Amino acid sequence: QLHLSDELRAAAAGAEVYFGFGLPPALLEAAPGLRWAQSAAAGVRGMLTPAVREALGSGRLVLTNAAGIM
Question: How far, in Å, CA of 8 to CA of 42, rounded?
Fold first, then answer.
């Protein structure tokens, strides 16, 4: 499990958008206002943790990927 620093937790608390490779459950939990997650990769299978699936299913989160950008 990923350990979030206090600084990262504070930044995540106010985040609405995330861009990166993977979305650790701890980060999703620390970001209650997160509405959009953009995967830097073409695939998102690795991001589909139970917490992310729940957020997607509830409409809280939109997940997009980088497929076709090159």
Answer: 25
Q: What confidence category does residue 70 fall into, taking pLDDT thresholds of 50, 70 and 90?
A: low
CA distances from 41 to 13, 20, 27, 45, 67 (A): 24, 8, 18, 10, 7
How far is residue 21's CA from residue 38's CA, in Å, rounded to a whole number? 9
Task: Give dist(CA 18, CA 12) in Å, integer.
Answer: 9
Q: What are phi and psi of 23, to 5 degrees?
A: -135, 90
pTM of the predicted structure, to 2 decimals: 0.84
CA distance 23 to 69: 20
What is the rounded average pLDDT for all residues in the chain? 91
